[in-house]
Structure formats: C-alpha cells, structure tokens
Amino acid sequence: MEKLISPQTLSEIDERIPDALRFAFGIRYRASPTPNPGEPDEIANFAAALLPPRAPGEPDTAAAVPAKRERDEDGDEEDVPRRDLRMEFASWYLKRHDEDAHFGHAETGVVGVADGVGGYRHHGVDASAFARELMRSAHEEAVTAPPGTRVCPLTLLERAYERTAASGTPAASTAAIVSLAGGALRWVNVGDSGFAVFRDGRLLIRSRKQQSHFNCPLSLKAEDAGGVAGAEVGEAPAAAGDVVVVGTDGLFDNVSDDELERIVGMGVAMGFSPLNMAEVVAAFAHEAARCTYRDTPYSVEKRKQLGAASTCGKPDDITVVVAFIVS
C-alpha cells in the first residue's frame, strides 16, 4: 500500500498509515518491524486511536435508497436556496484494464465517474470507449454551462449520454455524478459506480447498486432505447464539513461501508486534503482487492447470490474522487 501512496503524501500526513490500515482491517502484511514481546506496538496503538470500530449496537444511519425527484419543463432542477458552500475535490486512479473514466468541474461543483463494461473486451471492442466519451461529454456540458448554473446531474448525464450514443461510440458504461447545487447535494447513478456522503465522521448517504444479477450491473449503451430512464436520482441538504466519495466498483466491491467510514474519519481527524484521502482510499482498495483470506463486499455478495464459499477481493480498475464541502 505504501508504494501506491506517493512519498510526498505520506510525508505530508503520517508514514504509519498503510500499516495501520492493514492492522485495523486484517491484511496480513506489515512493512514496519513487528515489536518484540513486551514492547508497545505503535502501529496497533495508532490504529486503535484513529481507526476505531463502531461501538456495538450503534445504529447505521445511512440512507441506502435515494428518493426520486422531478425536473421542470426545461429539464432543469427547481430553484434551491443558494448557500455559501463550494466543492473542493481531487481524484486518484489505479489502472488494471484502464476502462474507467472520471471528470470534475470546480466552478459548477460537479464530479463524476464511469466504468466501461469489461465484457466488451472479450469481443474485441474497446470497453473503455463509452465511459470515456460519456465523461468527456459531461465535462464539456459543465464547462460550457452559463456562470452560476446549478447543475442537475440527471440532465447532465442525459445530455452526455445522448451525445455519446449519437456519435456511435461502442460498448457500455456505468456512471455516477454528484453535484453541489446551492445548499443541496444532488446525484444520479446507473449500475455499480456509486457514491457515499459522510458527515461528522459517520456515513450519511450511500447510493444503491443497480444490477440485473450478480456482477452484472445496469449500464448505458448506444443501442438502449431507454437511455437514462432507469437511473437512480436524489438530493439531500449539504453542510460544510461533508465528505463525498465517488467511485467505480473497483472501490465499492473491495471496501465496505464500515471500512470507508473509518478511513474517512481518520482522514478528517488527521487533516487530509482531498488528494491525500483519495490516494489512501484507492491504495487500501487495491490491497483489499488482492486479498484471498478476508471478506470484501464482493465476496459477501458472491456467497449470498451464488453460494460460493470464498473470501476474496475483486481486482479491477479503481477510481476514487473525494470532494470536501466547504464554506
């Protein structure tokens, strides 16, 4: 993990972080020396202080299912009171097949990720094509929006999809887009790319995975007449201090909500920047994906759906975008 986090980042924060994450979450590797019997374990103490598990019986308050919402006749969202909030974000991408894509635009306060459906790769089709064109088109829509525009993620995805499909771009993609519009966070997601919102160290909102069956997410593709009609959309009030993590399934298949909550909580306590946090989250997801002896969300769901008795991660492209809501 330490090789996946830049030396500059570790020097900015704390070089004990990779081993502390491994200790807290059961990864059987340690870069630093194991203490002799009777000696204090600095890594264990660090993990206990900054990565504590949730207390037994403490409720999980995250809203798992976003609420549907309507748009006005022009396709734009209804007015939301404007507050003095803005989005500061950074991203980190670890490649495997190089089929993920993402974008962000600070002026309009919007970020998004997409993951090309890998099955196309086996048919000689560039599985990254649709995801990349979708995110390129979404970014272009955001960049060309009039100053002061409050971005509707659904409208943005709709327009990006229409442009991508009209261009004849092959393959298919999942997608998740989150915007800060006035005093509200708004979102749209299709498939198993998703997002999570944290407030005061706790998971507040978590997107719902959309899939037809195990490991087969819903996706956007040119030949689908339904377009983005099946997308999940929603909104919630934003607050200064909120942390938004948007990612592809390479993140959410390998890092549980509890693990992500604890990593974000550690990052907030230690004063991480969005880039620090994106790097650390992506690096942990990368190690978790390669473990064959511990559970991940992927292995838990695999047992439930297929009855497969396995404990493993799922190696994949990993895209993580971290956005801080600040005043």
From TrEMBL:
Domain PPM-type phosphatase, first and last residues per copy: 79-325
Q: What is its EC number?
A: 3.1.3.16
According to the record, the residues making up region (Disordered) are 51-81
Keywords assigned by UniProt? Hydrolase, Magnesium, Manganese, Metal-binding, Protein phosphatase
InterPro entries linked: PPM-type-like_dom_sf (IPR036457), PPM-type_phosphatase-like_dom (IPR001932), PPTC7 (IPR039123)
Known cofactor(s): Mg(2+); Mn(2+)
The main enzyme category here is: hydrolase
Q: Reaction(s) catalyzed by this protein?
A: O-phospho-L-threonyl-[protein] + H2O = L-threonyl-[protein] + phosphate; O-phospho-L-seryl-[protein] + H2O = L-seryl-[protein] + phosphate
Which molecular function term from Gene Ontology is one that the record holds? metal ion binding
Instruction: Extract the Gene3D superfamilies matched here.
Output: PPM-type phosphatase domain (3.60.40.10)
The domain of life is Eukaryota
Name a Pfam family for this protein.
Answer: SpoIIE
**Family, per the entry?**
Belongs to the PP2C family.
Q: PANTHER family per the record?
A: PROTEIN PHOSPHATASE 2C, PROTEIN PHOSPHATASE 2C 24-RELATED
Q: What is this protein called?
A: Protein phosphatase
What is the scientific name of the source organism? Answer: Urochloa decumbens
